[in-house]
Fold this sequence. Notes:
A: Arc Repressor Mutant, subunit A; Bactericidal permeability-increasing protein, domain 1; 4 helices; B: 76 residues; 3 helices; globular
Amino acid sequence: MPDYDLDTKVKLAIYEITAETGRIPNSSAVSHKIDIDESEVVTAFGRLHAKRLLLPEPDDPSRIRMAPPFSGIATAFPVEANGRNYFANCVWDAYGIAAALHCDAVSRASDGHTGEPLTLEVKNGQPVLKPYVAHFAVPAAHWWDNLIFT
Amino acid sequence: MLLFRSEETVNLWCASHDIPRRPQVNLTQLWQLAVQWYRNRLTLESRRPAPDEMVPIFASLGLTGPFWDPKSDQWR
């Protein structure tokens, strides 16, 4: 990898591994990929969190809960893209995975109230439009207060 | 942010969770938000939009007012 600063190396490694595998890597996997001591990677996770680029697991700084638009855990927004399976953090991020990967995608989601299956699809680079709506419960000024709820 | 079939199920969800009904966006707006937020996320220069950059992004999609202003103190 070219000689970028550590935080950039870690950020790129996180997203490269995630795009390739469908899973957000932990600090050990990132350490292995870029040949940097794991403790330095964990410290970089903290700095990237301060820059609002990722959210570590609250009880384990070596693991990442969110590297938006990707989720480190299974969610109600699975996304199929490029022949791989990902999880998005929310409905915005379900489209976000298609936008980030620059590919078509399908998210088999569901109605937030009834649980009825609702499919979001990006085809030929455009969303397949349906009369669905996304509800933003939290104002923009507070999105980062509790990102998991937002 | 959750997905709903219609405004009707948004209203039912808000009532059942005692959460005020807040703005809804359609799929065209949501896709454009996703593109503007994430299209460069896997690249070297990627970063989250700064607060001053968010407002024009939202406004370009017709999303205006204090709810969409990350510096608004109306909600504190």
